[in-house]
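Q: I have two molecules that I believe assemble together. Could you output C-alpha cells for the complex as a whole instead of separate predictions?
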Amino acid sequence: MAGKGGSTPATYSPSPTTDKKKPSLFNEDLARPDGRSFHQCRPAFFRTGAVNAASGSAYAEVGNTKVIVSVFGPRESKKAMMYSDIGRLNCNVSFTTFATPIRGQGSDHKEYSSMLHKALEGAIILETFPKTTVDVFALVLESSGSDLPVVISCASLALADAGIMMYDLVASVSVSCFNKNLVIDPVLEEENGQDGSLMITCMPSRYEITQLTVTGEWSTPKINEGMQLCLDACAKLAKIMRSCLKEAVSDSQE
Amino acid sequence: MGLPNVSEDLSSEMEVDAFRRLFPLRYFERHLAESIRPDGRPLGKARETSIFLGAVASANGSALVKIGSTTILTAIKMEVMTPSLESPDEGCLAIDFHMPPICSPIVRPGRPAEASPVVSKQLSDTISSSKMIDLKELSLVSGKAAWMAYLDIYCLDADGALFDAALLSAVASLSHLQIPVVAMNDDGKIVLVSEEDGQKREQEPVNKEKRKLTLRSIPFSLTCILHKNYILADPTAEEESIMETHVTVVLDTSGQLISLYKPGGPVLAYTSAIQDCAALTRQRVKELKSFLDKANSAMEVE
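A: Yes, here they are, computed for all two components at once.
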C-alpha cells in the first residue's frame, strides 16, 4: 500500500537482452521487415460512426496503426475569439500513453495538431458555417509508423460523417528515403532509420495537394518520384474511403 | 390518402423531439410512469455489454468494453521499478482514467475533464479494497526489482455509467495480462528474455515463464439513478444529466460489498432503496462474471 503513495517511483521498461547493432532493415532479397515490396502499402481499414457522442467520427487501421477521430460542431465559438465571417477549424491530435512501444513517448508530437489543421483547412468549405467552430479531435490508439497520414485520412472521413461540406475527401500517404531507395507507407522501424521522408496530403478527385512535407535531403528527381508514388497511393486510398462512406449510407438505410 | 399521413407523421415526430429537448424531465417522467425508458429498456435492466480482450497488440494486457454506446479501452504496460523500503516484496498498480476530447462534446483538449480524477480515485480504491491482486505476485527480486503495472484506461465514447464500464475494462485487462519473462543482467538491470536467448541460458530467468496474475475476488459495479420513487439501472448520459441522484454499488463475486458511492443529489437514499440497488447489482454481477468467463475462454481457444 505504501508504494502507491507519494510520487511515482522511476520505472523503466525491460529491454531485449541482445544488443543487436541496428540490423539491416532489408534482407538480401530487398524485402521489408513485414515482407512488403518497396512500393506496396499496408492494408487499410476504415469505419465511420465509431463514437456515438460525436457529430461525426471514424476509426482507421493501417497495418498496426490505429486511430480514432471525433468531429464536434459546427458549434458556437468561444467568446474570446474574434468575429469571423467564415467558420473556424480547430484540431487536436493526441496519443494514448500505451500507443508507443515505450510507454508515454507519444507526447513528443506536438506539431501534429497544427499539421492536421493545415491539411484539412484547404479541403473544407468554411463559408458554409460562419461564426462557428468545427472541432476535430484525434486519438492515436496504437502507433506503428506513418501515424500522421492515417490521422489525416481518418479525420476527413470523420468530417464527411459529420456532414461538413468539403471539396473532396482528403487522403494522405508518406514515403521514406533510404539512400537511393524509396519506401512507401513506412513502419516504425523504417521511420526510425530513414534518411528523409516526404508526406503528401491531397484531394485525389481534384488532383490538388493541400499539404506537402519534406524532411532530410532530397534531389529534385527523387522528390518528383516520391510525389508520384504518393499521389498514386492516395488515389487508391481515396477509393477505399469512398466505399466506406457508401457502405455506411447503405447500412443506415436498411 | 398518402399525403396527409406523411405530413402528420412528420409533424408528430418533430413534436416529440421538441418536447424531449424543451421539457426533458417531463419527457422522462412520462416514460417512467409507464415503467419504461426512452430507449425501450425496463427500469432495472442494463444495456447490452460486450468485452473484447487483446485490443492493443503492443500492451501486456488489454481489453475493450462496450456497455451500450459507452466504450472504454484499457491497456496495461509492465515496467520495472525499485520497491519502497516499507514494502520491499511488493509491486505496484498505477491506475489512470483518461477522457480524451474525442469521447464527449463536453471535454476540451488541454485541461483534464472533471470526471477523470474522480473515476481514477474510485477505481484505485475499488481495486485495492477488493484485494483482487496480491501485490507480492508483482515482486521480482526482493528489495531490488518489482513490477509496476500501468493501467491506462481511455474513454472512447462517453454515454453514461463510465465507472461501471471502466471497472469492467480494468478487470478484463488484468485477467488478460501476461507478465513477460525477464532476467537480471550483470549490471543489475532487468532485461527481457526472448525465447531464443532462453536456450543459451546465459542469465537465469527471474521468473520461469510468462504467467498470469491470480485474481482473487473480482469486483463488479452497477450505477443506478434514484428519482422520486423510481430506480433506474445503468443510466445513459442523457439520463445522468437530467436526474441528479446517482448511487454506485460495487460487489465482488462472493457477494461482499466493496464500495458504495453516492455523490449528493436531492433524493434521500433510504435503506430500502440501497437494498434494491444492491439486489440489482447482485444480479448484474452474475451477468458480468459470465461475460468475462466467456471472453477469457474465447482467448484460450485462440
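A: One point stands out. Residues 220-253 of chain A form the longest helix (34 residues).
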